[in-house]
Amino acid sequence: MQETHKKWSEAVIPWLLDHGIKIAIIAVAAWVLNKIVSRIIIRAVRVAVMADQHTSEEGAKKREDTLVRIFNGAVRIIIILLATMMILQEIGLEIGPLIAGAGIVGLAVGFGGQYLIRDIISGLFLILENQYRIGDIININGTGGLVEDINLRKTRIRDINGIVHHIPHGEIKIVSNLSKSYARVNLDIGISYNTDLEHVIEVINRTGKELAEDPRFKDSIISPPQFLRINDFADSAIVIKILGDTKPHKQWEITGELRKRLKIAFDREGIEIPFPQRVVHQVKSKE
Q: Which of 32, 82, 185, 212 qualifies as a cystine partner to 244, CB 3.0-4.6 A?
């Protein structure tokens, strides 16, 4: 038993002192390299984003976070792969046959890999063109939600119901960004045909101005919601369009608050918001 233990010690300890130390150095060097490259990426991205004078401070921060996450993820994968191959070589495994085998497998799945390449190329254009960033609210091919993550292959968004959608970039046809630079209150409201339009316009503009001056909401509003035009003569109402600009992500909150205030103001001013009605005439038959 002692002889076996002695032989094991004589075989393992020299290996650990030689290859084990090298493996530890490779692992530490990979970790240090990842940290150094990560810092370089952060500084380079910050300089590149700050050079764009047309991007707001909030938008620049979103784009910076998005680019840093994507580039750091790609670099991390490359470093891990290189370190793993070096460690396998130190262990004694021949990485040449592994690489050759990977090449054969790559040829076997080449037709399937074309979709991966398409996703990556599309992702590069999405990122370079700054179409959307992490934290934006977007609509992709009819599916809308908050962007939680972006990598070179796919985008992950979470909709208002809490459902997470994973969308490959190669499948994206139309992207609608609902929160880039600014957003807009776009409200249609119906009033009765016998209403004094000048009075209605005055009430709407006053309500929008009061909302924009409210300390709770003024930092979210760029321009107060105001009367724009008569948008339609509907069956039972004159439809009025109201527009105003808000900060990104704030359009829904401001629109909801505006609806509430308009209802209160209309009730106070005697302005009727009509609803569809049907008049039934009953004809008495002659006996």
A: 185
In terms of pTM, does the model score above 0.70? no
Please, is 134 exposed, middle or buried when counting C-beta atoms within 10 Å of its C-beta (0-12, 13-18, 19+)? Answer: buried
Q: Are residues 243 and 158 in the same domain?
A: no
Sequence-ordered list of residues with C-beta below 8 angstroms from that of 89, at least 6 positions apart, any chain: 95
Distance CA 26, CA 196 (A): 80
Question: Do 148 and 242 fall within a single domain?
Answer: no
Helices (H), 179-250: 197-213
Residue numbers of the domain that contains 210: 183-269
How far is the CA of 231 from the CAs of 189, 253, 259, in angstroms? Answer: 9, 23, 17
Token pair of 96 as six digits: 């040449």
> What is the CB neighbour count within 10 angstroms for residue 247?
18
pLDDT at 54: 47
Looking at the fold, whether 21 and 98 belong to one and the same domain comes out as yes
